[in-house]
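Support reply, case 0932

Customer input (verbatim):
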Amino acid sequence: MPLFDVYPLYNVTPVSGKGIHVYDDKGTEYLDLYGGHAVISIGHAHPNYVNAITDQVNALGFYSNAIQNPLQKQLADKIEALSGCQDYELFLCNSGAEANENALKLASFKTGKKRVVAFSNGFHGRTSAAVAATDNKNIIAPINAQQAVTILPLNDIEGVKAELEKGDVCAVIVEFIQGVGGLDQATTAFFEQVDVLCKANNTMFIADEVQSGYGRSGKFFAFQHYNVTPDIISIAKGMGNGFPIGGILIHPSIESKYGMLGTTFGGNHLACAAGLAVLNTIEEEQLIDNTNVMSAYFISVAKTIPQIKHIKGRGLMLGLEFDFEVGDLRKELIYSHHMFTGGAANKKLLRILPPLNIKKEHIDQFFEALKKALKE
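Our regenerated output:
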């Protein structure tokens, strides 16, 4: 049976990984500066991660949410301790799209309203409400388009004010650093005024931290660079270092009721073991501190390369913008220099999303290859 052909594929077949490297079926070593869309947060095959999953699957891999699972509470407590998000509650699911779907559903339950405000170049997932709030008509089917969503430009605070004052908006959802869109950020004033407007208009403020969370921005969550208090925070990607897990942190002002949210696989024993291993490693290896140090070093080197016109993002969620489309450059880096990088909706942007334990030697290796590739 053929596979449904929806992915343009590079001719590389990774079969193993270790730290910041992956190895293909021919034994070639690749420097992984993309981490599979920012999923690999603590490095490939980290021993803490491997041991935690191995021990858990040897004990109990799965049971449903109809029984007690103390690992879920351990994971919730660890997220609270490392993030500083006191008093939020955790609902666990399986992916970023599912996290945002549940966030939007919960906002609608809480407010009794159904319209969503989202932003240009935002990406929130491919499921029903999440994809409707995504600014990409190519992935919105007619069944998704029936959702009530208004897309506004980033930094259009007057537009946000006008829409919220109509009284029918259940949620404003925003990435504090856009991922797929191209590492754009709104101003501090914009984010903080949106927070105030949401609270004044019975609208839930959803921070989409699916890609920017878990230390990638240099703080545990990217919204923590600003004076805002989201009602709901969606998380996934780096949360499981490759194991499918997602979730939402829910402000205590939102009451839970039996049956309002649910999932078969979300919060299963293996996912929680993976999630705990990631958090323990981030803490033990001080990976958020490392993110800030490596980010500063990366940016300092990038500034010396004249072909780079703009450096976007924060922490280890970075974009290098050129005055040409980077598709061929990415191919050159992967095939000639054996390095994985990412693209974006902005075709002139090279996305850099490495594991948080990257070292200066890896950054030096990348820039040496980049300089050669630019000449070639």
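We compared this against your earlier run and they match. Two observations from our side: The two ends are 40 Å apart (CA to CA). The first helix runs from residue 35 to 38. Please reopen the case if you see a mismatch on your end.
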